[in-house]
Records
---
Amino acid sequence: MLTLTFLGVGSAFAKRNYQSNALVEAWSESPERQDAPDDNLLIDFGSTGPLALYQLKDLAGFSYLVRNGAIYYPAIRRVFITHVHQDHIGGIEEFAILNRRSRLYQDSSVEKPLLLGAPGVLDLLWENCLKGGLGVMANRRVALDDYFRVVRLGGASAGNDGKFTLLDRYELSIFPTDHVRLNEKYDWPSYGLVIHDLQSGESVVYSGDTRFDPESLIPKAEHARLIFHDVQLEPEPDSVHALLGELRTWPEPLRRKMVLYHFSDGWEDPKYRVVKAEFAGFAFPQRRVVLFGSSPHPSGPNRVV
């Protein structure tokens, strides 16, 4: 079984629903039969990520994330970074420091977590975002791999074609997204994920941050059982996210299995009831959704309203 739980579902500046980061958990059986997953993965960890994870750890089914009342960061095996905006990487410094402290002072047998991302993302992450706070440790200079086992996905030297697996059954493939442009499409590193169940042949699409890009997303979505797509509710010229009005032009069969996330605090306005009427709904924070292993519930427990 594979499950996904949004730590938060809000936009970068949302104050009510935390930022859009997600926890993917792989289970040899199920959450009902296991105290902890066999493997897991954080998709991004933004500036509200630590607070959201602190809240999640106390909910039923997530006790493996807590030790002595605090977040037990070594319980997170892997982190995938879609891109380096603060709502996606702002909590990584805390993750790195407290994970290392836990391994040093609580359980030295635990391996460093895997940090996965495209080469362009990981280079920006260290040099432009983390090096200032994490680059010195105990009178010496350190690098990203002092905190993580770094896995570069794709690229000529990576040797993995941009793919990795959980439990040898669930294959996750990265794809570039049209989020921020310097001069042309895909020239600034930003990525989404397609998650495949190699046993059933089914897939789920996680868009990451992207402008409206049906040429890339629709072919992936046509064969998916569920689509998590970021959205900007308010119209805005030259938006770096897909606008609600744009997503409404997708074919109805695809919209019916599309769950919208990364939205602003105004989602309760009656004018956005169209999301419930035309899509699978808004994503709900801190609620576990089954991706594979039994039928997903895009019109039920993962709604906000």
Note: Residues 295-305 have pLDDT under 50 and may be disordered.
---
Amino acid sequence: MTLDELQHILLTGSWEEKEEALTNPRAGLPDREVFALLFEHLKHTNSQIRFFALFQLIRKFHESLTTIDETLVGDIYTLIFDENIPVSDRAIWALSITGDKGLDVLLESYPSATVNDKIKITYAVGKGYFSYRSKDRMNLMLAGLTSNDPQLRFTAMCTMMSNTPVGRSWNNPWNSTEDKSIDFEEVYKIVLPVARDFSQIENNTYREFATRYINWIEGRGRE
């Protein structure tokens, strides 16, 4: 199989045909060429093609993603803002695999980002598997808790709570914090008044999540 033939299948084939083309040992294409082709597809206008490319980069090239340069990291970072939610979620996963480079671009982009982009960045920092730099992540989420924008403040509250010991996803490595020097009692003191404010407003989603977090914080140590 030539690279052009693989390109044609990846652009026009069914998911099964694409999988077959990538896994067929008779294809004989160097990994570096397939890797580069998948990265090209991250910029395609079709969201299904972008999703497939991300899916396969994570699945087949996990180790390669850990060593990519800043330009390729930037290509993945761009997709966390994708309007297609599955693409955006998969981009966060892929960015996490890049390690420090991925986290650095998130942290460096945050101060000058628009509010909507700060919401996405906060979600990515909170959800991504960057627990080895927990303080950096916590500081960004704490910044969001002081925002005047309710959606950013709400996102910061939710991501922060999912990364605390009382969070119900705590045992999931994607929502854990390995830095033992973090004083979560201080974190709870900051989150609690924010949650109480949200618990008093009309928005049902804000109120329900806030009430849940208040119960988690106030009920810690009782279970």
Note: The mean pLDDT is 89.
